[in-house]
Every structure is written in C-alpha cells, then in structure tokens.
Amino acid sequence: MNQSAFALGALGGVACASLALALVWWLRPQARRWRARDATQQDAFEQWPTSALVVDVVSHQVVSANPAMMRSVGYTFTELCTLHLSDVLTCDGVDAKGLLEQLQSATLRTPVEMHQHCKDGSVRNVEGTCHRMTLGAREVVALGVHDVTVRRRTESKLLEKQQQLDHLAHHDHLTGLPNRLYLAATLPGLIEEAKNSGNLLAVLFLDLDRFKHVNDSRGHDTGDKLLKTVAQRVRSTVRAQDLVVRMGGDEFVVILRGITDTQTVTDTSSRITQALAAPMVVDGRTLVTTVSIGVSLYPRDGADMSELLRHSDTAMYQAKDKGRNNFQMFSPAMDKRLKERIAIESSLRTALQSRQLEVHYQPIVEIENQQVTALEALLRWKHPSHGYVRPERFVSIAEEAGLIVPIGEFVLQRTLEDMARWRQAGGNLVPVAINVSAVQLQRSNLPESIARLTKAHGLEPSMLQVELTESAVFERREARAREASQDAVGRLRELGVHIAIDDFGTGYSSLSYLKRWRVDTLKIDRSFVRDLVTDMSDLAIVSAIIAMARHLHIKVVAEGIEGWPQLEKVRQLGCTYAQGYLFARPAPAEDCLTFLSGKPLNLTERLPILDLESTGSGERVRALRA
Ligand code: C2E
Ligand code: MG
Ligand code: MG
Predict the structure, then answer these.
(1) Which ligand gives the minimal distance to the CA of 524?
(2) How is domain 3-154 classified at the architecture level of CATH?
(3) Which ligand is located closest to the Cα atom of residue 586?
(4) Which of 77, 98, 147, 488 fits a 20 to 30 Å CA distance from 345?
(5) pLDDT tens track for 225-267
C-alpha cells in the first residue's frame, strides 16, 4: 500500500476542516513509524469512509487516493494515478486550474461543489476542501471529498415542497390566480416600479353583481364554476404583464402596469365589463353575471398600497350605486361621500338613543270627495345641528348598517302611540301606512310585533298598512330572501294588515308578482306624476298602471300631487286616491287632528302656501294654474 494513500485514508476520515492538521501530523516521522507498526491503524485506513485525493499542483495529475476514493469512483489505485483532476472532479464554469484555486480558498463552511465522474460513467454530487503541501519535490494538494448526492436530492425535494407551499399560500386554489397575500407581497414593488419609470399604475377592484344569488339559487358548485370562468375571462382580457388577483369570494383585483394614459385604463375596464356580461354556460345552463369595477390610479389617487386599494374599493361601491355593471374612476368627492356616510351612520346610532327621531304623517285622500282615507307615517330625524334630515339621506345607510330594524320598531311603536292619542282626543281614526324596508321585513318578526303592539294599544291590525317598495321586495334574486319576504307578507295579510307597493313603476315587478302577493294598493311613484301633464311617456305609463290595477282590483294612489292639473289628470285616468303637497305636507302628530275630523280637506285654503319643493315642476304647475 502506497504510504501517501494510507495517510489520506486516515485523513479523509476526519472532517474536511481537520484535513490540514491531520496531514501535518501524518508527515511527522515518528507518527509514520508508529502507524506502520500498528495493524489497527491499517484497518482503520482501509475502512475510512471519506474520500481523499492527492493532486499535483502543476500537472493536475492524480498522485494518490485513499480506498474510500477508489471505492467511490470505481477505479483502482493504479488507474487513478493515470488520471488528471478533471477526469475525476469538475466544477461548473471553471477548468482544473480554476477548480484548484477555488478549493484552496474554500473553508469547511464554504466547501466547493463539484461533480465526481466515476468509472461506470455515473456522476455524483460532491463537496470538497483541500490543503496545499510539499511531498518530496512535489507541490501537491490533498483533497477531502464528501458525497452529497443524497443530501442534494433531499434538499431539492425540500425546495420543491417549499415552492409548492409557497404557491399554495400565495394562490387561490379554486381559480389558480394569485391571492390577497401575493398582492400584499407584490404591489409595493409594482408601485416602486411605476415610481421609477414615471408610468401610471391602475388598481381595478372588481366585485361581481348579485353573485350571492347564483350561490343561493344554483348551489355552491355552480358558483365555483362561475368564479373559475370569470377568472379565465378577466385573465384573458388583460395583458400578460398585468396582475389578476382573487381577493376572496366574488372580489378580484387587476393591476395594470406600465400605463401611460388613462384611456388604456378605461378601455380595459370596459373590456372586462363586456367580457363578463356575455352569457356563461355552466353545467349546461346559461348564466349571466355582471361586474362593478372601481379604479384608482397611482400616483393620482394614492401613494401606497392601502390607499390605492381603499380608493378603488370606494369607487367600486360607487359603481354599484350607479346601477351595477359599470366601472367608476375614483374621485376625491367619492371619499367625501363615504366619510359622510360613515358620519351619518355613527350619529344615527346616537339619534336612536337620544330621541332625535320623530314620525310625521301625511294624508292619503280619496280624489272624488277629498276625504282622508289613510295617513302615511314618515320618519324624520331632527338633528341637533343640521335640523330635519330627510329619510332619503339616511334610510339606505340605516339598512346597510343594520339599524333599520330598531328604527322600524321605533316607527311602529310611535305610530301606534300617536293613533291611541288621536283616538283619545276624539279623532276619527283612519288606517296608517308605515314604510317597511326589505331588510326589516326579512329580519324582524314584524307580523308578531304588529299583533302584539296593536293589541297592547287596543287597536285592530287592520288599522295598519305596510308599504313595501317593489325593487326591495320582489326583485330580491336570493331565493331565501324572497321566500322570507313572501312569508312575512302572508302572515301580515292573515292579520288583516293591508299591503301597498310603494314607488310603483320604478322597479321591474311583473303582474304575476302582484297577483301572487295579493297586493291591496299600488302607489304610483311621484317621478311619473310630476310631469304627467306635459310628458307623454309619463302619461302613458301612469295610464297603463291605473288600467292594469283596475283589472286586478288593486287600489291606486298617485303620489306627489302638487297641483290641480296633475290631480285632474290622474282623476281622468281613473285613479281614486292621491297624496301630495296639494293636500297636505307631512305634519307632526300633534297637528294631525285636522286630518282626522272626518270632513273633507279644505284645499282652497292651502293653495297660496303651495311651496313646491321638487325643482322645475313648481313653476310649471303655477304656470298651468294661471
Ligand atoms: P315614500 O314612502 O314614497 O314617501 C313619500 C315621500 O314623498 C315622502 O318623502 C314625502 O314627504 C314626499 N312627498 C309627499 N308628497 C309630495 C309632493 O307633493 N311633492 C314632493 N316633492 N314630495 C312629496 P320623505 O318623507 O322624504 O320620505 C322619503 C322616503 O323615505 C319614503 O318615500 C320612504 O320610502 C322612505 N321612508 C320614510 N319613512 C320611512 C320609514 O319609517 N321606514 C322606512 N324603511 N322608509 C321610510
Ligand atoms: Mg311610502
Ligand atoms: Mg313612494
């Protein structure tokens, strides 16, 4: 056995770091003598597991190798000694000289990664360090080499797993699109990119319209498939460099990069709305879904991610408010409106507790004899600093904030108290109509409350009417919500409560609904009545509604009658009831006894004070009257 091979065997066994020290030890004469005498050392040498190789620094010729190296590469000692370093060990991107240089500057912590070429043609991944020394007249390096094939394989599997985990954490499993986390990690970089390039960055916030309806009526499976189709359509509508993210539910965000003009943004937004509005075939059924999009632009609408997302979200709500299936660019005025909404919501909570809410009443009159046949209870908010706030400004906010249920209970309670007081004061009671929002109808136990409270006040439930807006009730696409409404209406009718459809004509309810829900009264929305005398299409609509209601034996009330010509027109068309400033404005409870005298209203007295709030029509009515 070659002595240098023996020595390397012993050396190779120690970790690469101790290679140099061990070599020095081996080269000492007494250690050599001691080892030669000791058979145990010979065995250790044979079995030593780490490969070691000695290479000539100048010729790169292999000078020696230990048994572990021979076993590892499959060459005999003699064969190995005919080879060069590059026949046994190579490193990507460097030649043998470069490899030796790298090895000499390597440490245990930073070993050189190499490929070991075996006699059978296989290649293994190894790591190594070395020590330079002089053997006789030769300058050599002694290399300690570790096989890291298994470790590398494990590492690459771990890396793959890590990448899979990473993908799962940053992508939505349903659509395969990047998710909210991915956006949070990426958007700041994209903003930075836009900042450096001076380009615009557009953030499009997408929310599907009435997606819940699909889930409720067709099931979650179909809902999921629809979402997948939506994801594909949005993805294929934008460019490869744009980012499409599913935020969760039916919300998506699209980031348009490298934009130089706003026209591109509006064009893309409009392409997305069109692409999604096209029918989709899911499970053999054709579904139609639309989308509302809000857009914010960097740097115009926000400097950072949260501001841009918040503003695109605000603009998206604006798109919903504007009737859905459209896109809106953010404007600071929207933010102002949003803040106003938030302010109204919080002061409305206080209003409920601190008795700022009141109920006023407006008569509904029989046209033929001007008798008051009913009163409508109208909510008023007496704000400590803003005065009376009209319900139009706060009812929808109260609905969204879930405050409409307690507010509705307050109106019912107060109305019944006022009715009891009028009766006590000798008034001729007429039924009172309360306005009930869809949310209140579905969520509260209105029929039970009415039964209990009317009894408590010694009143019949038939003295109450409930006004529901058609859009809020009939057009609920969610089957569950519609069923809840229908059920509540059924129970109200059983109690003897009359049902009126308010603002009729503004929604899309069909005759079949009116028949099925067995409605008692239709109230024609005042927007049709306002210009009835001058606008032919309004005239056509009103006359059609009256004719249809007659046919179905449903009473008709014309809302918003402000002048004699309007009143005369609706009378000619066959309408029997009317409501409006011509007869009386809504008044506080204490002023209502005049409505309950049992005598016809004296209209001539009211003519001079006719103050027409609705713009335009006042002038017209005055002119017509003159
Ligand atoms: P609505 O039920 O259609 O009530 C009629 C609205 O028209 C009232 O507005 C009334 O003041 C107004 N009005 C009556 N006659 C005329 C007229 O000749 N000309 C004009 N320009 N307006 C007239 P108000 O009180 O502002 O109420 C607006 C809406 O707010 C109501 O419309 C109703 O939908 C809702 N609302 C009112 N009170 C309540 C309530 O207690 N609960 C719920 N959920 N909604 C309510
Ligand atoms: Mg009403
Ligand atoms: Mg109305």
Answers:
(1) 3
(2) 2-Layer Sandwich (3.30)
(3) 1
(4) 488
(5) 999 999 999 999 999 999 999 999 999 999 999 999 999 999 9
